[in-house]
Each structure stands twice: as structure tokens, then as C-alpha cells.
Amino acid sequence: MNDRDLMFLPAHKQRQMIVRGEISSVELTEAALRRVKKLEPKLKAFITLDEEGALNTAREADRAQAKGGDLGPFHGVPVSVKDLETTKGLRTTLGCVIYKDWVPETDSVVAGRVRKMGAVILGKTNTPEFGNREETYSKVAPATNNPWDVKRHPGGSSGGAAASVAAGMCAIATGTDGGGSVRLPASFCGIFGHKPTHGRWPRYGGVAKMAVNPTSTSGPMTNDVTDAAMMMNAISGHDQRDSGSLRTPPPDHVSNLNNGVRGWRVGYSLDMGFAQVNDDIAATFEDSIKAYEEAGATVSKAPLKFDPVPRDYWWTVWCGNQAAMYGHLADERPNDLMDYTMAMIKHGRTLSAADFTRALRQAEIHRLMLHQMFEQYDIIITPGHAAVAWPHLSPPKKLGGKSSDNAMAGISYGAIPFTMVFNISWHPAASIPNGYGEGGMPTGLQVVGAWDRDDLVMQACRAFEQVRPWTHRRPAVS
Q1: 269 catalytically annotated
Q2: 463, containing H or E segment
Q3: What gap in Å lies between CA 448 and CA 246, rounded to an integer?
């Protein structure tokens, strides 16, 4: 089997090969590193590649394999970790030039659990500064390119993670998602990405000043729904270092994965009452509705109407947090921060406490609305985005035939209107490839579930994967 075919295998099948003695972790890791070295000049997916550390970990995995005993669910399998996760002994930049030489002394919860599941960390993937853009560029590293068309962006802020999986550098990756940063790159790059229920993947580690976290979580990015479900089992669970970490036991995301959606109630919304989408996005979404009908679900239009638009109050919370977490850097080293981060901090400093609490209250109102909605539906589906990935720093000027001029901090929020509401509502939401649009670029379907029912989201996505498989088609740069 050549390197390309090997690295496009699902991670759980790579692990099977290691356990059966068909390949060693060192051999698999060497194949991954060869793929990275071959493709990285075109993609710029990594900020830090840890070749020596990866091979040392792979050797340890092979020694453990030889001894026998319990092995982790991804024993010996290469993985990439987004550079917003702190990693002990491995450079972590957070996409910020101020931290370009920082080597943490501790792992984040997610990085630590990635190690415990037996995986081999290849390195740290590219991210915009502090995860603050829908495209992936900073002063630390060159912009990441989309494997389907290197003239286009891969999404953000987990753009490096998405590119690493989509191009077959590794089969699994971790991303983070505060407004769509797992789901958008997954949609733009044609892979699977999941934002867990808020608090289900604990958060700990970093350099930010203390602030409330009502939006952000880490999540899996894969070529295969089964891999993501297995990662959910491996990384979910309470950690006392995170005050927002859920204490209730997580559901099993694998046991019912292949049970399908026959008899389920699926609600759909093309616009959530406020968005405009391009015709190619609408076409693939219509086919997604048919796919769930083919799978045996009852599909009907969901009365989703958000007023005000979720982006507005999410933006207030996001920028208020940026001012709280990184405002000191704007005072101490403003020239070292990216323009988009400075714009968010400056806006955050214009907000009053009343502005912030009104935004949180609006989030509570919409959270209640969604809780009631999920009494009628098992899942809700929406488009993942309003337009396919556009050329670097050239967002669409029109969406759905109408002018799109609602940029904030340079970010074209009109093109990514569907994701942030489910960050601030705390509901689990995934993006799964559902077709191709303009220029042959991938499109994504967003699948949303009731609070803490990530298992149902996974089951629904697995059913979609079976009726609309996508992995027979790979990007140009792979």
C-alpha cells in the first residue's frame, strides 16, 4: 500500500493494522511525515512539525504493542493538533508572534487526552492569531491553502487542521470552535468536523487572562464519522481544572452509530430566517434533504427564525472576551498583534457591562427556543456556509444575488452565517461533506442536535455518510 492510500485510511483501520502487526507505528508515522514533507510546501498546514518527537512516540507505541496489554483507541496513529492547544515540551504559538518561541510545561486537557488515547502527535497546525479569523493566516506562519485549490483559503480558524486531514497528511486532527472554527474549515475542505456540546470537551491551558467562556470548545476533525465518534468517547469527560466542564457522564457515541435514522424527525432550514446563500449551496442542501428521506427519516421545514441575528450578540460576547483576555497585549505590544485581533479588542473596549449582559440574555432566549425546537425534531439541518471557499482575502461581494457588506474586523460574516448561534447556544453541531459547488469546491451540511446529544448527531451523520459517501473523491493537492 502506498503512502497516500495508507494515510487516507480511517484512523481506526490504521490502528487495526498496527494491532494486527501488519504495520508498525514507526512505519505509519514515517509515511505521514513523508506526506507532510511532500505537501507542506503547497499547503502550509503546520506551524511546527515535530519529526523527532513523533518518531520517539511511535517507537514507544511499538514497544507497548510488543509487550501486550491494553492499548488506546488510536494506539500508534498519527494525529495533528491545532496550535491553540498547549503541548508540553512542544512549541505552542497560538498563532501570535508574541509567543513564537513559547514551549509550555503542561498539556491542555485535549492534548493530554490525545496522548492517552495512544496517538502520535506529528506537530501543531496553522491557526490565525488566537483563532480570530475565518481564514488562516498570521505573522507567525504563511497562510494555509485549500487542498482543493491552493489559490483559495481552507477556512478558519482550524484551517491547518482541516488541510492536514483533507490532503491525507493524517487521518485525524483536533480543532477548536468558538464561532464555527471546526465546522467551517471542515465544510470548505470536504472533511467531517464536530463541535461538541459546550463543556463536553474540557478546556484548560493557555496564556489568556481570566474571562468567561460561553462560546469555545475543541473538537474532532476527520475523514470518517466513526473516527470522530471514537474521539468523542476518548476525550469527553469532566476535568476539575475547567469550571465549565460538564460533570454528567457523556453518552457513548459509538454504540448506536450504525443504527440509522429511520423514523427520525429531521427539521431543515435553508436560511434560519435571516441568511442568504448562493445557488450552489442551495442545490447541495436540497439534495441533503432527499438523502435523509432516502434514509427513512421524516423531513420537514423547521420554523427557525432568529431575531436579532445571532451574529450580533455573539460578536458582542466574542469581542468583550477578546478585550478581557488579550487587552493587555494591545497595550504592551500593539504592533505585534494582527489587525483583526486589534479590531476585536478595540470594539470590546467600547462595550459596557450592560451590553455584555444583554447579549448573554439574548443567547439564553435563543437557547430556550432551540430547546423547545428539539422537542419537535431529533436533529436540525442547515447549510454549513453561504458560499464555497473563496480566493484568499477576497470574500464574495454578493450572496444569493444580494449585496454582502456585513464584514466586521474584515471578516465576511454574511458568508458564514450559520455556525456561531450553536456555539453560544451550546448545542452540538457537525459539518459533513454534502457535495460540490462553484469551481468544484466542497460544500458542507450542518447537523445540529439537542443539548448533550452528540451521540445522535454522530448517528445522523453516519447515516448521511452511508447514503451520500464522499471519500471516493480527493483534493488536487493530495
Answers
A1: no
A2: helix 454-467
A3: 19
Active-site option among 108, 138, 181, 218: 181
pLDDT tens-digit readout, 132-183: 999 999 999 999 999 999 999 999 999 999 999 999 999 999 999 999 999 9
- The verdict on whether 181 is a catalytic residue reads yes
Candidate list 24, 80, 108, 157, residue with the active-site label? 157
On the question of pLDDT at 256 being above 80, the answer is yes
Burial code (b: 16+ CB inside 10 Å, e: under 16) for 39-78 equals bbeebbbbbbbbeebbbebbbebbebbeeeeebbbbbbbb
352 is catalytic: no
Any idea which fold 3-467 has? Amidase signature (AS) enzymes (3.90.1300)
In the set 82, 100, 124, 195, the catalytic residue is 82
C-alpha count within 13 angstroms, C-beta hemisphere, residue 2: 5
Note the pTM of the prediction, 2 decimals.
0.98
Q: Where along the chain do its domains lie? A: 3-467
Amino acid, single-letter form, for residue 60 = E
What are the phi and psi torsion angles at 223 (to 5°)?
-95, 5
